[in-house]
Amino acid sequence: MIKGLIAAVVVILVLYGAWEIWLYWDQVSHDRDLAAAKEAAAYQVSEGSMSGMPNNLEKSYQAAKAQGINQWRAWMRQYLQMVADPRRAWIELDFMVAIAHDQPAEARKIFAEVKSRVLENSPVYFRVKQLENTYK
Questions:
Q1: Where are the domains positioned within the chain?
Q2: pTM for this structure?
Q3: Which of 31, 42, 113, 133 might form a disulfide with 126, Cβ 3.0–4.6 angstroms?
């Protein structure tokens, strides 16, 4: 009788433990799915959807970018002070990636400057985090 009672208690404890482990795993899985969905939403941010650039500069920016690094750099020297974050940070990160192969020191300098002013709630933050290990 006692052995049967002990066996029943052990089985109940094992089942309860398995239930708790399953609940914990379900919560971890749910949290992971939420994080993945949040990250996927962040990746849907595009350069054109960001605020900060006056409309009259968009066409000249696209033209300078298409003409190559030197024209892009000249455009940035002339107009970048008129562009606000988050668009400014995005433009600088694009430029940084474009020059990184030939001018890695300048790319790291640009990255450090952008990283220092981009906040966690910025739409550019995910990109800064994505590039962080490369440009430290």
A1: 1-44, 50-135
A2: 0.66
A3: 42
